[in-house]
Design goal:
Elements: E1 3-9, H1 16-30, E2 34-40, H2 47-57, E3 61-65, H3 72-82, E4 87-90, H4 102-109, E5 115-119, H5 127-144, E6 156-159, H6 160-165, H7 176-182, E7 187-191, H8 207-224, H9 229-256, H10 265-293
Parallel strand pairs: 1-2, 1-4, 2-3, 5-7
Antiparallel strand pairs: 4-6, 5-6
Helix pairs in contact: 5-8, 9-10
């Protein structure tokens, strides 16, 4: 199998026929062997029935149906697990992503990239979506150090090695370029067309911004500190403990000079900082012990093996 197209969907029955037609048109022109994997994430409309009808017309369609809505990350994870193509393309099912960009994504991969992300430079969305998205992308770019503009674009192309190596759960689908980058894969970006929604409505609300923030912290931890938790917890532990010791030293000097310190709030703050610092440092040590017992062969980091 040359190309797998993985499409998570939730209540998109009206767009599926046109989407399939446009995808097959593009891939047939490339003269490649391909499959289209639809992951129905617990749709409550007739999306699944429509997919069954399309399956009769296009044999290369594969369908996965979830019992309920588990979210985009879960849908992508299962789609990745089933994908057999050497190249995996992901896109949304709402026709806002343009299938005509698939050849460009694959062409960019052939320049030596492992993951190519689309950049919706001109978006056809309301400001309530575009402004938070810009802030999110700016923060992710600064924290991760990856110089791409649109981390959350659903239109991406991956080499098979990438999707088998990176974890996808929670809301981590937004951070797949970050996870890939920190595993040593080469990440690139191209500008892609973005269309206004033709059918239905957006499935994402304000809650996703809070989820995205917490998942950014998760990504930061598992990419930078997963193998060295003491570097994170020890840093804060030493900082708290040192601050507490300074406060207690100052109070001790006052006590030797005859001043009462028993009722000073500063005394309780100093003791609290020392205790919190010791706990944080201990947590880092426990994390190091757990990490040392894990299998750290890093098979996914091996790019080539020649016997």
């Amino acid at each position: 199998m040359d190309v797998s197209v993985v499409i998570p969907l939730f209540n998109e029955e009206d767009s599926l026929n046109e989407l399939c037609q446009r995808i097959t048109d593009q891939l047939n022109r490339l003269n490649v062997e391909y499959e289209i994997i639809f992951v129905d994430d617990g749709s409550t409309d007739r999306s699944f029935q429509r997919l069954l009808e399309l399956k009769k017309q296009w044999s290369m369609i594969r369908i996965l149906q979830f019992r309920r809505n588990f979210g985009k990350s879960a849908a992508l994870c299962e789609g990745f697990r089933k994908a057999e193509g050497d190249i995996v393309v992901t896109m949304d099912a709402d026709l806002q992503d343009d299938p005509a960009e698939i050849p460009s994504l694959i062409g960019k991969l052939e320049e030596g990239y492992d993951l190519v992300s689309g950049w919706k430079k001109k978006r056809h969305d309301p400001i309530t979506k575009t402004l938070p998205s810009k802030l999110f992308n700016f923060a992710t770019r600064k924290i991760s150090g990856i110089k791409i503009h649109d981390f959350n674009c659903g239109l991406k192309a991956y080499r098979k090695d990438v999707i088998k190596a990176i974890p996808v759960y929670g809301e981590l689908h937004r951070y797949l370029p970050v996870l890939a980058h920190w595993q040593g894969f080469v990440v690139g970006e191209i500008i892609v067309k973005h269309h206004a929604r033709k059918f239905g409505k957006s499935k994402f609300g304000a809650r996703r911004f809070f989820n995205g923030f917490f998942d950014l912290l998760t990504v930061l931890f598992i990419t930078r500190y997963r193998q060295k938790p003491l570097h994170l917890f020890g840093f804060f532990g030493l900082g708290f403990s040192f601050s507490g010791i300074l406060i207690l030293t100052y109070l001790s000097i006052l006590w030797f000079e005859g001043h009462g310190i028993g009722n000073r709030p500063l005394l309780f703050l100093g003791v609290l900082l020392v205790i919190v610092g010791a706990q944080s440092f201990s947590l880092g040590l426990i994390g190091e012990m757990i990490t040392s017992t894990r299998d750290t062969t890093l098979k996914s980091a091996v790019k080539k093996e020649i016997d």
